[in-house]
Amino acid sequence: MHITDPSLKSVADKFLAGERLDFKDAMALYRTPDLNGLGLLAHKERLRRHGKKTFFIRNQHLNYSNVCKNRCLFCAYARDAGDEGAYTFNEEDVRSQLSANRMESVREIHIVGGLNPCLGFDYFEKLLNLVTELQPEATIKAFTAVEIDYLSGITGLSVEKVVERLKAAGLAMMPGGGAEVLNDRIHKALFPKKINKDRWLEIIETVHSQGIPTNATMLYGHIETLGERVEHLLQLRKLQDRTKGFSAFIPLAFHSANTRLSHLPPTAALDDLRTIAVARLVLDNFDHIKAYWVMLGEKLAQTALYFGADDMDGTIVEERITHTAGASSPKGMTRKGLESLIRRADLFPVERDSFYGEISGGSHGEV
Ligand code: V47
Ligand code: SF4
Which protein residue has the closest C-alpha to ligand 2 atom 7? Predict the structure, then answer.
């Protein structure tokens, strides 16, 4: 491996000797001018873990309501009740979303929405029951720690009890949203009404302890510093040491259109790649790093597969959150389209279920 930057070389030696990277090491990775060297190191680690396998899932997103009382500054999706464009799915809407929008059968339904004060706990239980009835073969991956906290607040039930009841209604996994950047300064500046880092970590720990795996995300490319990104990763790694409940880490590139931060430019491709690579090397206890093609765009997501990512998420069918904030990627992709994207990157597509069980495969490592 050809590494030109001496500070990267010393971190690479440490990593390759099996030592855990610390804050200083992670900052050296972020700051190195040798992006190729960083990518090679992250790709080596990706190949060690997964060979040329690149995971994807046939999934569908269901965003049940965009009414949200939090109104985070980075969000283009949320509305106040009664605003133009505000919506909340009723039973008929869910039925039609899960049938009309389906280009092909799905294995996972990814359900998240805003904190809509008009919805009681029964709405959420009914929603999960309905999705189970309509798509019995699909895994329900639903709600973030933010929604769990909200449901606990409106019912007076403990987080444990909320999760227990949602589990009984069909919840099997949770996505990684709502973490944003686990940092009090950014919380205060960008999402003061949403739960803070301590509560996010506490809820996720409880969820993991109840046998529900989750993902973890990081929303980057706004006002955060590189140090704050690294702190975010280290907090996730620390929790993962305790719970082993995280499945994948997904960096989310901030899209500013139609938000109150619309003056901010899009993330640079090189920063997107660096962020994937640093995550692959620092999160040594995470099996999977996702290149979320919706936010990165298809071509950069392909490139990210050579910077540490091993998963491309899924077919998605009608993504709303990033598209209201200006994403120019398609709103969904067919299974064939995703497979072709991975093959054209000279890698091996492997369809997975929500828990990374392999659905299709073959001679792994072959293209
Ligand atoms: O928490 C909101 C982010 C998240 C914007 O777990 C924005 O498999 C960019 O968590 N620009 C929700 N991002 C999406 C999410 C997710 C997506 C895909 C897969 C998984 C998974 C989880 O979207 C929010 C927030 O961090 N977000 N607004 C924006 N303008
Ligand atoms: Fe609401 Fe989530 Fe948007 Fe924040 S990011 S305003 S919590 S929908």
Answer: 70
Q: What is the ipTM of this complex?
A: 0.99
Tokens of 282: 């620092």
- In a 13 Å sphere around the CA of 10, the CA atoms on its Cβ side amount to 8
Which of 61, 69, 72, 148 has most ligand 2 atoms within 8 Å of CB, for mutation?
A: 72
For residue 121, give every residue at least 6 positions away whose Cβ sits within 8 Å of its Cβ, in sequence order, or none.
151, 154, 155, 157, 162, 165
Q: Whose CA is nearest to atom 2 of ligand 2?
A: 114
Query: For 21-353, which CATH superfamily applies?
Result: Aldolase class I (3.20.20.70)
Cβ-Cβ contacts under 8 Å for 351 (sequence gap 6 or more): 55, 56, 57, 58, 335, 358, 359, 360
Phi, psi of 112 (to 5 degrees): -145, 160
Give residue 191 CA to ligand 2 midpoint distance, Å. Answer: 8
Closest C-alpha to 227, from 20, 27, 7, 11: 27
The model's pLDDT over 12-70, given as tens digits with 9 standing for 90+, comes to 999 999 999 999 999 999 999 999 999 999 999 999 999 999 999 999 999 999 999 99
| Nearest protein CA to atom 21 of ligand 1, as residue | 175
Question: Ligand 1 centre from 13 Cα, in Å?
Answer: 34
Nearest CA to 162 out of 214, 211, 124 is that of 124
Q: Say how many C-beta atoms besides its own lie within 10 A of residue 95's C-beta.
A: 15
Pocket lining: 143 vs ligand 2, CB cutoff 6 Å: no
Domain boundaries of the chain, sorted by first residue: 21-353
